[in-house]
Design a protein that fits this description.
Strand content: 5-15%
Number of helices: 15
Bound molecules: zinc ion
CATH class of the largest domain: Alpha Beta
CATH topology of the largest domain: Rossmann fold
Number of domains: 2
Largest sheet: 5 strands, parallel
Strand order of the largest sheet: 2-3-4-1-5
CATH architecture of the largest domain: 3-Layer(aba) Sandwich
CATH superfamily of the largest domain: P-loop containing nucleotide triphosphate hydrolases
Helix content: 40-55%
Shape: globular
Order of helices and strands: HEHHHEHEHEHEHHHHHHHH
Distance between the termini: 48 Å
Radius of gyration: 22 Å
């Protein structure tokens, strides 16, 4: 895979390819946007493009694919450097992922150490921090030091679906690139070859809400999670007092779904166009959906929808402190009740 395989993020890919071509990568990036939109995939392929040895430098490596190997701004995807980055064994590339929902200071120390050496292979020293907002306080303090004095020829890519949870001091030192959910037609062309059954494809497009990662990697799982979200949301809107979440991960997933629900409500409110909705596929076993989305989207006041959206961002921030589930449930329900009561 390479940057040319990233779907629907043309602006981001163009900026990254230009950085590769001109050897002018920023020392730190923040890739943010909904989970499953391709942020990590893009980060990995950006790092590959930066460190690719290219067939021109590596005689004997076959050129494959549409632009494979010929595009100086993209990875060839066949040289030893590309292969090792893909396999996670390149000496100049560190990948950090949360463990049990947290990134600890030890991981950031590893990153610091790795970046302090010059690149072994003449490319870039690179680090990708997945779900970077899960750094604990000590880790993000240590991390700040890496950002303040970036070693030459090094690139750090922070990947985050909740960038508002990163300290401002970290965010302000990164070049932020936003990943957007894909449109329904982009999703359709992406899934056309992969999912043959048109009914299933339609459901996946609706339920993954423009997030190709969800649709491709977790097909059935995405459908199930989406159904659970809609069930919880309907329960909340109908006045249920019992949180349906069992853990923090489920709360995060609920807030993901809620953001896209509000996005759809706002789109419908402003344009009246149902064809632009991302999450309006029927949910088997949940009566009243998507009618509820459509009626709320049409009847709520625009300012109230926007207020709710900001409210969800606030809730996400508060998740750092492990809030009480019942309180959070009732707070969120109170927020959403304004959609129906007109403010
Ligand atoms: Zn390569």
């Amino acid at each position: 895979m390479a940057l040319r395989d990233v779907i629907g993020q043309a602006g981001v890919v163009e900026a990254l390819k230009s950085a590769v071509l001109n050897r002018k990568a920023a020392s730190a990036y923040l890739f943010h946007g909904p989970s499953g939109a391709g942020k990590f995939f893009t980060a990995l392929n950006f790092v590959k493009a930066l460190n690719c040895r290219r067939p021109a430098d590596f005689p004997g490596v076959e050129e494959k694919g549409p632009a494979g190997g010929k595009d100086a701004a993209d990875a060839c995807d066949h040289c030893p450097a590309c292969a090792r980055i893909e396999a996670g064994s390149h000496p100049d590339v560190v990948i950090i992922r949360p463990e049990k929902g947290v990134i600890k200071i030890e991981e950031i120390r590893k990153l610091e150490e790795s970046l302090s050496f010059r690149p072994y292979e003449g490319g870039y020293k690179a680090a990708i921090v997945d779900e970077a907002h899960l750094m604990n306080v000590r880790a993000s303090n240590a991390f700040l030091k890496c950002l303040e004095e970036p070693p030459p020829e090094s690139v750090i890519v922070l990947v985050s679906s909740s960038p508002e949870r990163l300290p401002e001091t970290v965010r302000s030192r990164c070049l932020a690139l936003r990943f957007k959910p894909l449109s329904a037609s982009q999703m359709e062309s992406l899934l056309e070859d992969r999912v043959k059954d048109p009914e299933k494809r339609r459901a996946l497009i609706g339920l993954s809400m423009g997030r190709p990662g969800l649709a491709i990697e977790s097909g059935e799982d995405a459908l199930r999670k989406r159904r659970e979200f809609i069930k919880s949301l309907m329960g909340m809107l109908e006045g249920s007092r019992n949180p349906s979440w069992s853990d923090k991960e489920e709360i995060e997933e609920f807030m993901d779904g809620l953001e896209l629900f509000l996005r759809d409500a706002l789109v419908l409110n402003s344009t009246g166009r149902e064809d632009l909705l991302l999450g309006a596929a029927p949910a088997p076993g949940v009566p009243g959906w998507p009618e509820k989305l459509k009626s709320l989207g049409r009847s709520a006041k625009k300012e109230v929808i926007i207020d709710c959206y900001h409210g969800v961002a606030g809730i996400r921030k508060s998740l750092v402190y492990n809030p009480n589930k019942s309180i959070l449930w009732n707070y969120t329900a109170g927020l959403l009740s304004r959609l129906e009561n007109g403010g």
